[in-house]
Amino acid sequence: GDARVRGQTGVVSERRGSYPFIDFRLLNNTTLSGEIGTKKKVKRLLSFQRYFHASRLLRGIVPQTSLYLLDEDYLGQARHMLSKVGMWDFDIFLFDRLTNGNSLVTLLCHLFNVHGLIHHFQLDMVTLHRFFVMVQEDYHSQNPYHNAVHAADVTQAMHCYLREPKLANFLTPSDIMLGLLAAAAHDVDHPGVNQPFLIKTKHHLASLYQNVSVLENHHWRSTIGMLRESRLLAHLPKEVTQDIEQQLGSLILATDINRQNEFLIRLKSHLDNQDLRLEDAQDRHFMLQIALKCADICNPCRVWDLSKQWSERVCEEFYRQGDLEQKFELEISPLCNQQKDTIPSIQIGFMTYIVEPLFERWAQFTGNTPLSENMLNHLRRNKAKWRSLLHKQHSSSRSNDHSGQVTGSQEQTLNEEETP
Length: 420
Fold this sequence. Notes:
Blueprint: E1 5-6, E2 12-13, H1 24-28, H2 30-33, H3 39-46, H4 72-82, H5 92-98, H6 103-114, H7 117-120, H8 125-137, H9 148-162, H10 165-168, H11 173-185, H12 195-200, H13 204-208, H14 214-230, H15 238-253, H16 260-273, H17 281-296, H18 304-327, H19 343-366, H20 370-399, H21 408-418
Antiparallel strand pairs: 1-2
């Protein structure tokens, strides 16, 4: 049915099913592969309702929240993990297996309880659980990276950051709830392709948001739609719910990687001038934006085994987009060419230009706490491991060269990538 929700402000918010994205299962269906070969047909596919991805709730099928139906051994292990949810080496992949794919719902219920949000905001537990299920179900499980496990990982990281003394001493219950909700829903209904792809295929969302923060706007509007549909906050005053919706938007929109420099410059200015006043709601909100940005890209700062899994997943998603672009004779986007863009080179570039500058500033803000030092240490070790793997790749490619020579362009690339 029509999944749009008109709220108090009169804005029509998005819910999944209203705005179709590419369905990879549909595109990869062998019965269609012979028929689809033109850009025109791609656009036609893009215009289909994504009924495969439509929320099971909207179709009247209530998902099994199987955490409570699991074997007692699994329940015990999941509970034990939750007792250590504030630890940086928290294994979200293991937790997702122990909760039978319900890591996001289980984590959110626990954190809302731990932070006293259920009592403070007088939230109905059944409604709260239903809302969390809606959010989890609105992620695409077939995405290698942008799925509900990523959302749970970002939420767990956000919980760790909210406990940093420099921030925790000033946070209100509203700040904490906004931080956790934004982390949980920041990539909801992500299609597994990036903004440039949506723009060049003339996707209607790109037109709707005029090619600016297209995905982030969609994640925000989808979240508002679910909030209103669930009526989770319906008992709160109208002005409070409107403020929550707007602040959620401001937080989620901050995750747009194209705005990275804007936030870094502002953070640097605050730190250099020492003029952050966390008693001020505006400054607290800005630091929540920074915290969410850190949580969103913290994978390189995790222990190697977890970090490597996330790196492989995000690159797999890039490569799928590249394969799709090649299949439909579109220009292959940067980082999406599996033949040219290796995982080590992608990760080294990401760490150098995006992750390091942000986390060094975050450490400066927190006062180099044990967590910040731990993250930076993991980041440096992980980068060294990727450099080592990159070097092995180059050595292998050189040994396989029949002439035994490295071309000038290869040597130049090697030198550039090996330079700290």
